[in-house]
Amino acid sequence: MSFAVRNLACQRAEQLVFENVSFSLASGEAIWVRGRNGAGKSSLLRICARLLSPLAGEITWNDEDIFKDSETYVGSYHYLGHQEALKYAMTVRENIGFWSMFHGTEDVVSALEQFDLQKLADTPTGLLSQGQKKRTNLARLVASSAKLWILDEPLSALDKHYIALFKERLMRHLAAGGMALFATHQDLELEQVKLLDLDDGAL
């Protein structure tokens, strides 16, 4: 598997956000996107998730353009953004099951266990705390078979225990040949993570 970004540029409200951004990911690799506020971290992740169109450049998944030949790519990535993307009337279990269907249903019960959500499984997500909602979102990742995780601030609202738990799950994902592209203000202290500084536009 391969994911490559070449000479990417982004424009927002007729203002250039970034340009000439290039990087690549192979199985077992992760990239931490950094940069000042307004550097375009979230915009970059949204482009990689096909939620925004780039001003210029190319993104490929296994050498196929993700905007032109998207069929194989759509089921290969899982995006978690700032917004929760949870259905509040549905329970925790139902939310995880709903999202996992888009990426090849895996073991929802195991996903609940991995983020300590068993006792909340049948609780409507609208009644959860912010930290519990974040854990529900993260459980969506391990309940799917998506190879590429695209994560915007995955650690927000988590305490030290669950940050460590997420780090362990991320390491397990990479060890199984997965990939990750994420932006966070907290250092996960992972040796194998490459850094992409949008202030420079390159690794």
From TrEMBL:
GO MF terms listed in the record are: ATP binding; ATP hydrolysis activity; transmembrane transporter activity
Origin species, per record, is: Sneathiella litorea
* Alphabetized UniProt keyword annotations: ATP-binding, Cytochrome c-type biogenesis, Membrane, Nucleotide-binding, Translocase, Transport
GO terms under biological process: cytochrome complex assembly
Annotated NCBIfam families: ccmA, PRK13538.1
Q: Taxonomically, what lineage is the organism? A: Bacteria, Pseudomonadati, Pseudomonadota, Alphaproteobacteria, Sneathiellales
Kindly indicate whether the keyword Nucleotide-binding belongs to this entry: yes
Q: What is this protein called in UniProt?
A: Heme ABC exporter ATP-binding protein CcmA
Entries under Pfam families matching the protein: ABC_tran
Report domain ABC transporter positions.
Answer: 3-203
Sorted alphabetically, which SMART domains does this protein's record hold?
AAA
